[in-house]
Amino acid sequence: MISSTSETILSIKDLHASVEDQEILHGVNLLVKEGEIHAIMGRNGSGKSTLSKVIAGHPSYKVLSGSIQFKGKNILELEPEERARIGIFLGFQYPVEIPGVSNLEFLRVATNSRRKELLKSELDTFQFEDLVKQRLKIVEMNPAFLERSVNEGFSGGEKKRNEILQMALLEPVISILDETDSGLDIDALRIVASGINRLSQPNSATILITHYQRLLNEITPDFVHIMADGKIIKTGNKELAIDLEKSGYDCIDKNTKEKEIAK
Amino acid sequence: MTQSNTVEEIVSQPYKYGFITEIETEKIPKGLNEDVIRLISAKKNEPEFLLKFRLRAYEQWLKMKEPDWSGLTYSKVDYQDLVYYAAPKQDIKKKSLDEVDPKLLETFEKLGIPLSEQKRLSNVAVDAVFDSVSIATTYKEKLAEHGVIFCSISEAISEYPDLIEKYMGTVVPINDNFFAALNSAVFSDGSFVYIPKGVECPMELSSYFRINSGDTGQFERTLIIAEESSSVSYLEGCTAPMFDTNTLHAAVVELVALDNASIKYSTVQNWYAGNEEGVGGIYNFVTKRGECRGKKSKISWSQVETGSAITWKYPSCVLQGDNSIGEFYSIALTNNCQKADTGTKMIHIGKNTKSKIVSKGISAGKSKNSYRGLVSISPNAEGARNYSQCDSMLIGDKASANTYPYIQSKQPQSNIEHEASTCRISEDQLFYLQSRGIDFEESVSMLVSGFCSDVFNELPMEFASEADKLLALKLEGSVG
Question: What's the domain range around A45?
Fold first, then answer.
């Protein structure tokens, strides 16, 4: 499994970040190594989605202090597109609709920008169609979705599959999947989860941001982190998620309160 | 979207058509009076009826006032300070391209419009107009085999005076408006197209207008006649060098479609727009109108307006024939200090006439972009239908967009639908594209292309990608 000599992919230290002048992250620490699957759980508003957007470089989110390193390099100065090209992938909780832009062309331009970084040749329309048809199978997606505008009129499940399709095409080093399971029925959840499993590589890593245990029944995490009030307050293994499912977030709140009182 | 690399390439380029061709030009003295009009007419060896036409128009023009209802502000043109005729010096009648000044051929080649036999565009016939005269028309012979006439309007005046006398000024009367009257008095050249009965024009026809002189007004005149059951697709392109003075371009375009005929008229307008502070640029004050005279005839305008300091035009359709169809697809992009007031008029006269308007306005920088349109349904136009969709996109917070739809219906059995929207490029859309590795400027042009896709789909294939590149180019540095 995971050896201690695995290379560190993502290292976040004491990260404080704000949006609209309100501090949301109050000192996040996270270490992700090759081959690992991390799950970050927590209530709404605990800062999970903020963390994912800060890693991907959303311009509305400001880093106040702390650091984010990707393979040992500071990425805070990089534009979102530069982060994407070096292999950071964010699967959106709410994928954005882009009217009038063909999904196929969007996927091709995105794939080529990543390939350029990897010093691979650019794919023309025909070459790309071959690649995309093959990757479509991973998410059992109907090729008709390629002809439509990006995410426009897609159902919730179709949008999420389209996210995983992008992950399959971009072959990221680290994938941060923000609530990929939300809004999916059980069949769609299985398809998406099996897609994620098939795409995980020994030299890549995945962070699953989720509310519920049910995704973790399909994808076994190596680490489970509980986030509350802009911090990771507890880290454990798969069992932690199961406990959480049984006893709920209130229990965590109580535990932390007790700890604080004990201090 | 076109290929990503070409978009990138183009984004980093300034106005690349701003060069001036050094060529000996024959100009008449500045100013406008009856003698000047007689001189222009004489230079072109025009028949008497045309001189009369010009003089009548001039007489009307003198009585007219420059309109100011549009709210466009610009420093008024001094009509006595303009040159009304400028032509590159060469033998008057050039029989073949070999006799055309190589500098002119070079100019058009630089503009991407090669004219010579070996290099010219396949399947597109081109009429190249330089300042006041037509330089060359390609594929004339091939078109003649089908009975199609495609030549400069000057040539048409001497070769086909009957057609000119019959049609010119019947769609846009000489006293239609101030600029149309001026054009009718002094027009220099332009294109003429005649498609005979039952002929589907075998290739795209295209005119390319180039302004070279700084102090010369350009007044071209285009007339397209599609006889019964014929069809044609025509495209015009326009560029000009960069001058810090404003140049007036006041064209008149008239289209006539008879029974079952169809005319598709596309424009890619990229006149020099002035610099970032709004100094210089073309005043593009144009009257374009088509008449669907015949039953089941169809006229479709599509335009991509990216250039000019000021664009002021409303390509319109008069739907006279029963069951005739008018269409207007427009993209108007303004940046920096550009102003555009453009739209269409759909005049429904015949029964069951249909019209469709799709307008996309994009305003960036400090520019002002207005859609102004009229849908008019006359009492006889039973069963008339119109659908209009006007969308505006704002880039940055200093640009403005307006929509002025005028609707006049005097026929209760008609149906008019109008939709309008305004949007900004959203940060979330941009971030989504960027987070997939697509850089900022390309993301913007992708969003703009997407916004315009309904109209791109209406453009002839090769020009759609050209227009797309043009938009990307114009948006350079407009965001952020």
Answer: 8-94+172-262
